[in-house]
Every structure is written in structure tokens, then in C-alpha cells.
Amino acid sequence: MSIMNVRGRQNLGPGRSAAVWLTVLSFMIGFLLINAIPGNGASIPVVDAKRLADGAAVKLSNVVVTAAFNGVFYVADSNHNSGIRVVSNATTYPGQVADITGVMSTSPSFERQIIASSASFQVYDPPLVSNQEIGGGDYAYDPSNKTGQRGVPNSDGIPNNVGQLVKTSGTVMMGKPGDQADFPIDDGTHCALLVVLLPGMSNPGYSAKVTVTGISSLQYQAGVTRRAILVRTPQDLQIDAAPPECKYTDPMVYIPAGESTVGTDEDPNDSRTKIWSPKHTIWLDGYWIGKYEVTRAQYRKFIDAGGYDHQEYWTPEGWWWRLQFRTNKPEFWDNASWNQTEQHPVVGVSPFEMDAYCKWAGVRRVSEAEWEKAAGWDPVAQKERTYPWGDMWDPNKCNSEGNTIWPISNKTAPVGTFPAGASYYGCMDMAGNVFEWCRGYYSADWYNNPPVIGWINPDGANRPEYDFYGYQVYRGGSWASPATSVPTWYRFGQFPYLYNADIGFRVAR
Do 285 and 221 contact (CB within 8 A), yes or no? Predict the structure, then answer.
């Protein structure tokens, strides 16, 4: 008669019970040993692979590629407890997840390695986040004892993700295709994100659409932290849409990234001083700016291409303005009294027309800060010049009131007529000839109200919601200006629906 134990199982007696358990234990050990043999298809950790003899079959699964060279790459367990060299001609790059089959070997330098017979790869695809979410706010940050992680200004409530693998997308904000320099992108959140490239990588070009995978990081520039993403490999930068064709064909000058100053604290008794003070430090990423003001020849191409008839080139306000005034060319365009050649700067254009031209030409408007750096910054002396050529006034270095080279009765001069008046970077006519519209809303006290993200690529003061048009900045003085109106830091503002015989513009990328 069988006896049941308290768990309801049959009691087989001491002898038979031990025999059964020994059989079960032997089966389990055998099963584990058989499945631990790589040749039987089971994967093992990297640290265990190193214990196998040369020639032993091995399989690794879900290991992370940590480096890739010609004919060799390295992998590590996902917890990074151990890594190993893999000999293979497979194409891979760091960050991929790999499955590898092969045999163990030892290199001539006694490094254990796997001679791979097969290798397959998958990409770890982090979730797509907005530019604004890169970096995030402070995390338990205490600068007094250097604890926690600093974040990006004005990012309260956004989780700090510095050091994490992230993916984001956006439009390239500046630069030409091929520029080997870091560049900012914007996904519409108006939180410019700096893409930090590897050596040898290049900018896809202004207005290209990109998706970027990399490490969430920070850059400290002009006294403030800014959000950045560090690409790990060329594959981290994917071009979703190529930049538009650039139809502007005159020379452009490259202005390298770096700090500079804008504004001045001079003339303390001048009631207008607050317009250009206080003097302060800014950071601008590298950009291209037109060597010359936009000429009639360059603008004529826009007219001939039907630019005034294509709404897609115009802002909503600009298109309304164009219909209201039935405009199809700049003011003074056909005015014989001007006697302008194709190499004279175009005048009589409003910011609305400038915006439309830039959209058509594949370029952009120059920001006020970009204009001032190109006009006056001297990177050798580390100071801003009063005039593009230096600090001493010389009426014959620009087309303005008092020069004896180009009479004021002739109004504008062909661009480049005053080469001695070039800026440090080689930009022409940034004093005199024509004022130049810049991008950004004009505010007389803007310099006293720094942006919440700091003076990094400043884009102009915020336009009040009630201001439909937005007062616009223009810079540089003109053929009719006295010496007091042409310093590099001098600022002016005017409504964009207005235009003058002494205002033109310059473009950037």
C-alpha cells in the first residue's frame, strides 16, 4: 500500500527516491553541458568564449560592436563585462548589435579572437526626440560642490539625458555642403541643436533635412551651456532631403565659429547709446556671408524666373503685401536717373522681397549678429573694429558722405569699388554704399535683454504678438550717410513694408 506525503506525491522509499533524483540531476547536468557547447548552437558570454581552446566553435548573441577597423572589429557583452576581437570583413560600426558564429583563435600578439564564419548586425534604434529634449534641465545640480548634472538653460521640467544615446531630426541652419565644421539644426521648436561631427565628416548644407543619432551632450560657449549631439560614426548622420540648389553665384566668405563681441559702451552721453550697448560677448557657429551686397544682376535672375508670381517663395505677410501693392520688381528698378549697372547693389527692396529672393535662391538672410561679426570683428586683436578697415575714420575707404572717389551725386557705386575698406574677413562695402537689411526684429533695448538661452547664434529680439509686421534691423550706412552712421556697431530699424533708395541686402548660408 502506497503512502502519500504531505504534498500529495507518492513516497517511493529512501532508496528509490535517491535513485530517481540522481537520474534527474544527471539529466539536467548533461543537458546544460550539451547546450553549453558552442557547436551545438547555444550562445555564451564573451568571458566564457575566452576560456575555449583554439579551434573550438563559438557563438555570441546580442553583443555590442565597440570599434571597427579594416578586417577586424571588437564586441562586448551588453553589460560591458568583457570584450573580444573578431576577425571578419563584415561591414559594421560602433553601436550595432551583433550575432557572431565562428571558431576561437589567438592572434600573434596573444590576443584571443574569433575567426568569424558569419556575422549579422542590427542597429539599436533609440526613440526619436525633439531638439528641445536633448540635454534637458539640471539634475540634482549643485555647482558649489560639483554634484549632479548641469542641463540647458530654460529647460526646467525636461528630463536630463546627457550621456544617453538619442536620435533627433531637423533642418540644417547654416553652412555649405562639404564644410567640415559643426553645425546647428532646428526641428521647428526653435531650440537650435549643435551637431558635433567627427574629423572628416561634413555639413550637408543649409536647408538640408537630416536625422541624427548620437550622444546627448553639452557645449559651453559664450558663458552658457547649449544642447549638442555627438555623432559616433558617419552613419549617424542621415540626409533625409538634400539642400536646395543655390542660385546665388557671387563669391561668399567663410566666417569661422567662435566668440566675438558686439555693441559698444562708447558715447555715454549719447541718448541713443542704449541701442548698441552694453558691449557683450556672443558665440556664432561657422557661416558663409556674401562678399558683396546683392547686385542687380543677381536679383534680376529672381525676377526673370517669375519670383514675384510664385507664392511659395513668400511669407504670408509678404504675399499679402505684394498683392496689395501689385509689386513685380523693386522700387527704382527702371528709374533712369539712377544710371545703375548690373554690378550696382539692388536698392528699393523691402524685407518681404528679400525673404522671397532668399527662399528662391537657396540662401538666407544675415542675422544682425552675423553681419556685425563679418563687418567688424578682428580675431587677431580680439576686438571689434569701429569701421571694417580699422578704428581710424577714412572717407575714401567707403562710399559715404565726404569721400572723393565716388561723388554723392552718383549715389550707389558698383560693389567692390572700395577694396581698401574691406573687413578683416574680406567682406566689401560693409560701411557705406547701401544700408543692408538683416534678419530679426529690431528693439532699441535688445542688448539689455539677453535671450533665455544666452548669446548663442542670437537671432534678434522677440517680436511682440501684436506687431503684425515687426520692426526690422538694417546696418552699415549708405552713400548718403555721414561718418557717424557707419560704425560697425551702429543699429537702425524700420517697418518691412517700407523701402528706400539707400537700402539693399546681403545673403548668408
Answer: no
Per-residue model confidence (pLDDT) at position 428: 98
- In whole angstroms, what is the distance from residue 489 CA to residue 84 CA? 59
CATH H superfamily, domain 131-241? Nucleic acid-binding proteins (2.40.50.140)
E strand map for 357-471: 364-365, 377-378, 383-384, 435-441
Q: What whole-number distance in Å separates Cα of residue 368 and Cα of residue 437?
A: 9
Q: How far apart are CA 165 and CA 128, in angstroms?
A: 10
Are the C-beta atoms of residues 249 and 299 closer than 8 Å to each other?
A: no
Distance between CA atoms of residues 421 and 414, nearest Å = 14
**Cis omega before residue 108 (within 30°)?**
no
Q: Tell me, what DSSP letter sits at residue 133?
A: G
SS3 content of the chain, % helix, strand, coil (to 5): 20, 30, 50
Rounded to 5 degrees, what angle do the CA atoms 394, 397, 403 make? 75
Read off the pLDDT of residues 463-481 as tens digits, 9 standing for 90 and up.
654 455 568 899 999 999 9
Cell of 392: 581710424
Contact between 399 and 406 (Cβ < 8 Å): yes
Residue 328 scores a pLDDT above 60? yes
Tell me what pLDDT residue 506 has: 98
Domain ranges (residues) in the chain: 1-36, 46-123, 131-241, 293-508
Residue 275 pLDDT > 50:
yes
Q: Is pLDDT above 50 for 129?
A: yes
Q: In a 10 Å sphere around its CB, with 0-12 CB exposed, 13-18 middle and 19+ buried, how is residue 425 labelled? A: buried
Q: Mean pLDDT, the chain, as a whole number?
A: 86
Domains 46-123 and 131-241 are alike in CATH topology: yes
pTM, to two decimals: 0.79
Omega within 30 of 0 (cis) for the link into 278: yes
- Buried b / exposed e over 140-150, threshold 16 CB at 10 Å, is eeeeeeeeebb
What mean pLDDT comes out for the span 184-201?
94
CA dihedral 21, 24, 26, 31 (to 10 degrees): -160
Pairing relationship of beta strands 383-384 and 139-142 according to DSSP bridges: unpaired
What does CATH list as the number for 46-123? 2.40.50.200
- Which residue shows C-alpha cell 527516491? 17
Write the pLDDT tens digit of every residue in 490-504: 988 888 888 889 999
pLDDT digits 0-9 by tens, 339-353: 789 999 999 999 999
What's the sign of the alpha-carbon dihedral 356, 358, 364, 368?
Answer: negative
For 293-508, CATH gives: 3.90.1580.10
Strand pairing category for 183-186 and 209-221: unpaired
Question: What CA–CA distance (Å, rounded) separates 262 from 250?
Answer: 27
Q: Backbone dihedral region of 326: left (phi > 0), alpha (psi from -120 to 50 degrees) or beta? A: left
The DSSP letter of residue 10 is: B
Q: What is the dihedral of CA 289, 292, 295, 301, to 10 degrees?
A: -40
